[in-house]
Write a structure and sequence with these properties.
It is globular and about 45 Å long. It is built from 6 helices and 7 strands, in the order αβββββαββαααα. The protein has 188 residues and is of the alpha+beta class. Strand 6 (120-128) and strand 7 form a beta hairpin. It has helices at 9-15, 101-114, 144-150, 157-165, 169-172, 174-184; strands at residues 21-28, 34-36, 39-43, 60-64, 75-76, 120-128, 131-138.
């Protein structure tokens, strides 16, 4: 039996009693630097006891601004319609700032430092009234949990560099993506 962790009162006003967690993901470049992929808040609906976004269970996830910790519009696994207010509480999701956001980011980096041999980790982090609490760490994580709320793919910027550096170019077909990018480049 696990101890129930109450979420921060500000987040509980939005989502109710069921704990919603942040999905924070770190990736380590070959030079040892640790970066964060886009983050989301997995928002529960009802008293299911879980914030599981995937498998079409109807829960929500919302992007979290990496600097300010401000929550963007939530989306469901299927349909991807914009949800600005929680469907049961009616409380605004969009625009809310995650309490203890800087501490949650620092925590993710510190945990990544504990596992230097692992290239990427995803964390489910609860935000309580006293700060962030790690619920679980996942060496394998689902990209749709991040991509659906952000409405964009992960294969860009520093994460794309990470994939190229680690030799995953064939998996994500970066050569085809580069050709497509050049078609839309100025003068392409």
């Amino acid at each position: 039996v696990e101890q129930r962790i109450p979420q921060h009162p500000q987040l509980a006003r939005i989502a109710g009693e069921t704990l919603g967690t942040l999905r924070l993901t770190t990736f380590r470049m070959l030079d040892g630097t640790v970066h964060m992929a886009p983050s989301v808040w997995k928002i529960p609906i009802g008293l299911s006891g879980v914030d599981h976004f995937s498998h079409g269970v109807g829960q929500l996830a919302a992007p979290v601004d990496p600097v300010e910790g401000r929550i963007g519009p939530a989306r469901r696994w299927f349909g991807l319609e914009r949800v600005d207010r929680h469907p049961l509480t009616g409380t605004a999701i969009t625009g809310t700032v995650i309490p203890h956001w800087p501490a949650a980011r620092v925590m993710a980096h510190r945990i990544a430092d504990c596992f230097p041999e692992l290239a990427s980790l995803a964390y489910d982090v609860a935000i309580t009234d006293t700060g962030p609490v790690v619920i679980e760490v996942n060496p394998c994580w689902g990209e749709r949990t991040i991509q659906a709320p952000w409405r964009q793919g992960l294969v860009q910027g520093e994460f794309r560099e990470f994939l190229e550096e680690r030799g995953y170019g064939d998996v994500v077909n970066l050569s085809a993506r580069n050709q497509a990018d050049s078609l839309f480049a100025p003068g392409g």
